[in-house]
């Protein structure tokens, strides 16, 4: 289980992230950043009169994603793409407004919220634009495709706070498995272990689909939606 502070530190290391909200039948995205956390959740702000703020107020929903290396996609001389070690993080969360007086009170003991508290007086429209993600589920997707720092490509971890449930990552091998080993042979992520039946390590599975195609008895089920 991850603490909110741990999640925030990974997010803060990235800096700016993509925040997406719902507007009717469209998804709207923009770049923004968080500005603190505590036991109640993770904080960010905008102007309440902006479309971003209005959409947050109307739906109470936000998704956020970012990557630790903004130059994560490079190319070899022959044009083959390469990916240096990096991690992505995403959150699917419920948000609510935080009253300006609460932000100011929290800022007395939480230095990360001081800029938000100061902006309440500096930018009046921001007084009603403080939000907290108070419950969410998320995932860290740590890649090392060239196995520079470890002997496998992927470390994948799901988490939640505020009592939000989530499904495990990765495909699932059922009892129909005949233990032929073909799935393990084609898995370049070292995510499949022998057993009765064979087992998928959710922390390494990329959902690449190779094992699904290789299984001769259709014993592997697609992953569940997050």
From TrEMBL:
Signal peptide: none annotated. GO terms for molecular function: iron-sulfur cluster binding; metal ion binding. InterPro entries: 4Fe4S_Fe-S-bd, 4Fe4S_Fe_S_CS, Split_barrel_FMN-bd. Gene3D superfamilies: 3.30.70.20, Electron Transport, Fmn-binding Protein, Chain A. It comes from the Bacteria. SUPFAM superfamilies: 4Fe-4S ferredoxins, FMN-binding split barrel. The keyword Iron applies. Keywords: Iron, Iron-sulfur, Metal-binding. The keyword Lipid metabolism does not apply. Residues 168-193, 196-225 form the 4Fe-4S ferredoxin-type domain. This is 4Fe-4S binding protein.
